[in-house]
Amino acid sequence: MKITNLNLNKNINIDDKVLREGVAIQAKIMEVNGSNIIIMLDNGELLEAKTLLDMENLKNQLVKFLIKNIEDGKVFLTPINKEDLNLIKGEGYSDNKAVDVFIDKVLNTYNLIKNEENILLIKTIIGNKMPLTKENLDNLIKNIEKLKNLINIQKDEKVFAINLDKTPFDESIMKFIKINNNTITENNAGTYPHLDNNLLINENIANIKQNNYQGQREVVDVTKDIFPKLETIFSQDTSTRSLINKVVILTQLGVELSLNNIEKLKNFIENGEGIIRPLLKLASFIKNSEQTDDRYTDEINDFSNKLDLKFVKVDEKNTISKESIKRFLYETKEILERLTPYIKSKKSLSEELSIRINNFLDNLDLQRKINSYYTFVHIPIEYEEEKDENNLFIIKKKNKLYTNSYSIYISLNTKNLNKVDVYCNINDEEIKADFIIEKEFRNLFKDEFDRLKGSLNKLGYKNVSINLREDFEKDLLNVFLENDLFNYNLNIRV
């Protein structure tokens, strides 16, 4: 029987499905030769394929695969069922070991130093399902190093921008260079005639040459502008993990790595701003301003009266009903649908209203980009007697292998227990919850864990793991990472 080597000029159809990336198929493994396998499809055709794992233990068995990629006539496959993955790994071959072996391979292939930062970067790339190419790695490493360099501005240093097309806050950070004050002098014209010589010995000159900034170039001192901005954005967390998370996620979303975009991501997710808080501020401003406007009409009155969106409340029994969340999301959708016609109906917008609208639209655009990779829902919640801001984040990772996998982050400002953060991972009948709380309250929480486990068991969760984490880094961006790194290891080719 002929063995098919798939190419771009031929399509194979199985049950009316064309073999392409992302399609799940079922096939019998006929032959195994290292990473090369021959499988028999449901229609009887034999197909040559590749996989990164040793499939010897699955020979002559029917296996469900996901087509991860088709390249140069080769089909790259990933087993889907956990039972098959367990057979592949074999006894004594841990998930962590598999990940470590793979990361070593990447580091060696791309000639990278084996250090904690590069290992963390590779894990973050995998966790965000980015293609692990040399181009991506080089680009991310340059951006991370640039960001670290800018954050650590010393008193005797200045930051210059080369050929700004936008404001310093909106421009790519790769257009910034940091130079020691003692090596430059400003002339009476406000320019820096010796700056070019300094650039030649500055480590960033390679980047400038790559981006064709040679010859005629405008150089601007932006130290006074960006220094306060950097202090605001990175006032609390400048850990390597946090910087890597921000750079990788913005790159994944196709967003320019600017200071404004880094701040937007921080406010949107880490500070719980989302699209709801800007929408509420916008709605409140419209309602208050329109009521004092002489041009107030029945149409505007009808719109303003419906701008009464409130946070989801926790009742006296410390529960949140599904109905209240549904109502909140419905009201949010209704306001969004009414907002566009309202803006179009205005002949002119005040400067303050324009700023609020643009702020909201920026957040809405970021929400749209995030939702192209994850289903991300942010719900502000409040207790009956407390006015502190609390947030519930639900993140459904778009994972074709584990469609019932969710990540949930709950951030609470409580009256008696101060700040409480909870990271939850839910997959089918399993739930893992990590509590991050202040030290003085840990024993109190431990005493309640058995009762919490019992309640979760009653809800159908058979495998419940609850932990107190003292070493947990409070970076919500970690929730976006894929938890099963071994499984995603199958998706990468080096």
Automatic annotation (TrEMBL):
Domain of life: Bacteria
Protein name: Hook-length control protein FliK
Keywords: Coiled coil
Coiled-coil ranges from the UniProt annotation: 130-157
